[in-house]
Amino acid sequence: MSDKQIPPRKDRTLIVAGLIVLLLLANGVQFWISRQDKKEIEEKDVVIREKVADLSRATLSLDSMRRELDIKIAEIRKLGGDTAGIGLLKRQIERDLKLARRQNLKSRELIEDLKGRIEDYELQLAAKDQEILKLKQENEALYSDNNRLKNKIVQREDSISKLAETKARMSEQLSIAARLRAENLKISVIDSRGREKEDDDYRARKISKLKVSFTIADNKVARIENKEVFMRIMDPEGGYLYDLGSGGGIFMLDGRESPYTSKLSFLFDNKQPQLSFVWEKGSPYKTGTYTVELFCEGVKIGQANFIVR
Known about the structure:
alpha+beta; Immunoglobulin-like; 12 strands
């Protein structure tokens, strides 16, 4: 037999039981520690997810605000407003948007700061809405004023146009009324002996000079001034008798040059002056009907015919 003593059976049982208890305690402690770590990890995951969600919402809000500001800037420009202030607000939002996309998700202060800025930006956006509304109201008022002013201008222009038309009609009527008129138009001939004969039918060989007499009729509208009367004689073939050497020339009639046989000047004083032309042809007359026309200020004032045989 060995000299070593074997522990009693009872003692061995106690030792084994103690070891089992220690193992159980160790497992329990390890389980508890494991549960605590898992809980802490889960809590951290929740915090991270909340941060991600908050930052995502902040980013979306800032991006939405930036797009909304683009619309408001275009609207303010269209209304003629100042976009300097709203442009600065847009640049601030774009700066915060870039910052939100670059920052670490662990920065809780950043997220809270962004939330505060977003609330401030929302207030400023609401103020810009009021500014746009005010600009619209001002533009509507200005548009209404412009319409009223345009209507007044149109009415005034219409009145001026009507007045001008009335004035033009009156001027035309006055011009017509101011036209002179030859009365008692008589044609006679003077023979070579100086004897004057008045008739409608003359022999060519008896005509040395032609005399055309007439009176200027009363006209209280015509201006008192020096005037000219042009006499034009048309021969039987439709040609006009005029000779620069015997007082003939060219005058304007209906906007065109026309020959005249002779002219005379007189003072029109509305006293019915007696006027006469004495004209010598210088060559024999053709047989046929001649027409004598009198003009003053571009208007025909008298006409008569005589026959040469």
